[in-house]
Design goal:
Elements (H helix, E strand, L loop, with lengths): L1 E6 L3 H9 L1 H8 L4 E7 L2 E10 L2 H9 L3 H7 L7 E3 L8
Antiparallel strand pairs: 1-3, 1-4, 2-3
Helix pairs in contact: 1-2
């Protein structure tokens, strides 16, 4: 799992791109699924959870199309990778 946290200027535009162009590009790089959660206290803060292997995620980040897609997502700054504090079986 890959979890990122980002601030967006336009949540509706973020969702539009996340569901279309973003999905196609993630799929191209081996992503098996994605979810986006908006912070209930801040609609401009989004948590994205991806079913993705780390090496495929790295390939996605290296893709030359990503900066343009990030601009279309209306990100205020690059997403921050959230690192798990602990991982348990159940």
């Amino acid at each position: 799992m890959i979890v990122t946290i980002a601030r967006v200027t336009d949540p509706d535009r973020f969702m539009e791109i996340f569901e279309t162009i973003g999905e196609a590009k993630r799929r191209e790089h081996g992503c098996r699924g994605a979810r986006a959660y908006f912070d209930p206290d801040d609609p401009h803060r989004v948590w994205s959870v991806f079913d993705w292997d780390a090496e495929d995620y790295e390939g996605f980040l290296a893709d030359p199309d990503i900066p343009a897609i990030a601009r279309e997502l209306k990100l205020q700054s690059p997403p921050v990778l959230a690192v798990a504090a602990i991982e348990l079986e159940a």
